[in-house]
Design a protein that fits this description.
Blueprint: E1 4-8, H1 14-24, E2 29-33, E3 45-49, H2 55-62, E4 65-70, H3 83-100, E5 104-108, H4 113-118, H5 122-135, E6 140-146, E7 149-150, H6 155-166, E8 169-173, E9 179-180, E10 183-184, H7 185-196, E11 202-206, E12 212-213, H8 214-229, H9 232-236, E13 238-242, H10 244-258, H11 265-272, H12 288-295, H13 306-310
Parallel strand pairs: 1-2, 1-4, 2-3, 4-5, 5-6, 6-11, 7-10, 8-13
Antiparallel strand pairs: 9-12
Length: 317
């Protein structure tokens, strides 16, 4: 692979794994980023600020790019960072990419965006709108729809483990029978890079091989904590089923303590509506349970803050 590849957020989470796979395949890589971060690739990846307000600068950065891998999005609204703004920024990026001669866009979306949009969930509404915009752009595209992405750096799984290692009880919203189908971040990156090598328009659900009910997932994590670490508190952590609003209130209390956002209303609604699973054959191969057993002692040792990771005090813009 010798053509120039662009990845948004190559020094962040998902983008980092995509960039690493592209570099391993011999491709030159640049990144568009909204925040100055430590260069994880020893100078192999040139970085450029997003500059959404200066499209001509964005176009200049993308000149000569064959494929753009877009991971840019926001998990929740904060200050001037809104879903509506993220949608407009991404549309600008698609337009600029087309003008710069980018041949293909691999866009990281979310599982079941249309179903979430039908429920008037802003997170999903934005994702669904961007998929339609990309389809109408005239560019060759691949839309990748992940569910819950897991790795040692994942915030959700880490913080569930963190809570189970420390708290006397864990609040499960509702009956807990809704499902998740987690996908390993390395598998997601592999799916994205493979899709980038095609020119066929495609939509792929990036999901792992197993489905868990939410209660089943919590029970599994509890059991592995007990087996692997001998954490007696985890053994005694009680699972209580509470109304969704009570669960959100509990999450808000943790958020106030941690100065973070543990769980959003959209995330909970999407989870309880079974939007984090797929009817497609699993595109990811890594099984969550053995991975969790192998990594449990590395998870939940510290609380992972979304705000610290994605809202640092000195962004480029």
């Amino acid at each position: 692979m010798s053509n120039l590849q662009a990845v948004t957020g190559a020094f962040s989470y998902t983008g980092k794994y995509i960039a690493a796979k592209l570099l391993a395949a011999g491709a030159p890589v640049i990144t568009l980023t909204g925040h100055p971060r430590q260069d994880l690739f020893a100078g192999q990846v040139r970085s450029f600020p997003f500059n959404f307000q200066q499209p001509e600068q964005l176009s200049k950065a993308l000149q000569g790019t064959d494929t753009l891998y877009n991971t840019y999005w926001v998990r929740f609204e904060r200050g001037e960072t809104t879903f509506a703004q993220a949608v407009e920024n991404t549309k600008t990026m698609f337009q600029v990419a087309a003008k710069a001669g980018v041949k293909r866009i691999v866009h990281i979306s979310i599982a079941n965006p249309t179903a979430g949009a039908d429920r008037q969930l802003p997170y999903y509404m934005g994702k669904a709108a961007l998929e339609e915009n990309l389809k109408a752009s005239g560019l060759s595209y691949a839309i990748i729809r992940p569910t819950v992405v897991f790795s040692r750096e994942d915030i959700l799984i880490n913080n569930i483990v963190w809570l189970l290692k420390r708290m006397p009880f864990f609040a499960v919203p509702g009956a807990g029978k809704y499902q998740l189908q987690p996908v390993f971040v390395e598998d997601l990156a592999e799916i994205a890079v493979r899709a980038g090598q095609s020119r066929e328009n495609m939509i792929i659900d990036a999901v792992g091989p197993e489905k868990y009910t939410f209660t089943g997932l919590i029970d599994l994590i509890k059991e592995i904590i007990r087996e692997q670490s001998g954490n007696t508190r985890a053994k005694g952590t009680g699972i209580i089923h509470v109304p969704p609003l009570v669960a959100l209130y509990c999450a808000k209390l943790v958020g106030l303590w941690s100065r973070d956002v543990l769980l959003t209303k959209d995330e909970l609604a999407g989870l309880m509506a079974d939007l984090l699973i797929s009817d497609q054959a699993p595109a990811g191969k890594t099984s969550f349970q053995p991975w969790l057993r192998a990594n449990i002692n590395c998870l939940g040792n510290e609380y992972a803050s979304e705000l610290k990771r994605h809202f640092p005090p000195s962004p480029f813009h």
